[in-house]
Structure formats: structure tokens, C-alpha cells
């Protein structure tokens, strides 16, 4: 094997290790954050097909990534999360509920109406 082959392999392994390290650091940071709840509405739902080279026309076994975007009722920045299919099916556009997050992770979403006094004093 040529010498540059080993250099390419070292670069690839280095990139994989770096990505794993970033993911672990993000999870640690998320876990260290307090739980935060806010009242939101489901503002956007996205179902994005996962395409693989050479498999574009294979409809039988299409796989999807599911994203949901929440907008706070009292204004503020929207938050977008990747969720599982079952969660995606349960959430409809314009559904109102309480979103609980920890760092950048979605912990839970419970549909319902905000208490009448939730906007007072804030």
C-alpha cells in the first residue's frame, strides 16, 4: 500500500474521534442544564426522506427523519427538534402544549391549554 493510504486512514479516524468527542461534550452540557418549561405551539412539521446514493427510486423501503418546530406563545425564538415517528404522528400543526427541554434536548411535550394566570407577572 502507498504511504498516503495510511495518512488518509489517520485523517478519517481522527474525524470520527473528533465527532464522537463533540457528541459526548454536547450530551454532558445538556445533562448539566436545568429543566426548562414553556408554553408553545407546533409551528412546523417536516418529514424528510433519507436518500442513499443509488437508492433514489426505491419507494418500498423509504426511511424518514422527522422534525418538529415549536414557537413560544409569549414570543421568542422557535426551537426545532428531531423526533421519532410515533411522536411525529401524535403532534399536529398548531397544537398547543407545554414543552420541557434540558439544554438543547427535548424532554417532553404535553398537549393542553396554558393556565389562565401564566401570562401575568411575566
Walk me through what this model shows.
By secondary structure, the protein is α+β, with helices and mostly antiparallel strands. 30% of the residues lie in helices and 37% in strands. It has two helices and five strands, in the order H-E-E-E-H-E-E. The radius of gyration is 20 Å and the shape is flat.
Percent strand equals 35-45%
Distance between the termini: 67 Å
Series of H and E elements: HEEEHEE
Poorly predicted tracts of residues: none
User: Major β-sheet, in short?
Assistant: 5 strands, antiparallel
Number of helices: 2
The outline comes out as: flat
Q: Strands of the biggest beta sheet: in what spatial order?
A: 3-2-1-4-5
Find the count of extended strands (DSSP E, 2+ residues).
5
Mean pLDDT across every amino acid position: 85
What's the gyration radius in Å? Answer: 20 Å
Structural class: alpha+beta
User: Residue share in helices?
Assistant: 25-40%
Task: Provide a concise account of the structure shown.
The protein has 122 residues and is α+β, with helices and mostly antiparallel strands. It has 2 helices and 5 strands, in the order H-E-E-E-H-E-E. The chain has helices at residues 3-32, 85-90; strands at 35-50, 63-72, 79-83, 96-102, 105-111.
Question: Secondary structure elements and their pairing?
Answer:
Blueprint: H1 3-32, E1 35-50, E2 63-72, E3 79-83, H2 85-90, E4 96-102, E5 105-111
Antiparallel strand pairs: 1-2, 1-4, 2-3, 4-5
Amino acid at each position: 500500500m502507498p504511504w498516503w493510504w495510511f495518512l488518509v486512514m489517520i485523517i478519517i479516524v481522527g474525524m470520527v474521534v473528533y465527532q464522537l468527542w463533540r457528541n459526548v461534550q454536547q450530551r454532558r452540557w445538556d445533562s448539566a442544564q436545568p429543566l426548562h418549561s414553556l408554553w408553545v405551539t407546533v409551528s412546523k412539521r417536516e418529514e424528510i426522506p433519507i436518500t442513499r446514493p443509488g437508492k433514489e427510486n426505491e419507494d418500498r423501503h423509504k426511511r424518514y427523519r422527522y422534525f418538529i418546530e415549536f414557537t413560544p406563545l409569549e414570543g421568542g425564538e422557535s426551537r426545532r427538534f428531531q423526533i421519532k415517528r410515533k411522536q411525529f404522528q401524535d403532534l399536529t400543526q398548531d397544537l398547543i402544549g407545554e414543552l420541557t427541554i434540558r439544554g438543547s434536548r427535548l424532554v417532553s411535550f404535553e398537549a393542553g391549554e396554558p393556565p389562565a394566570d401564566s401570562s401575568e407577572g411575566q
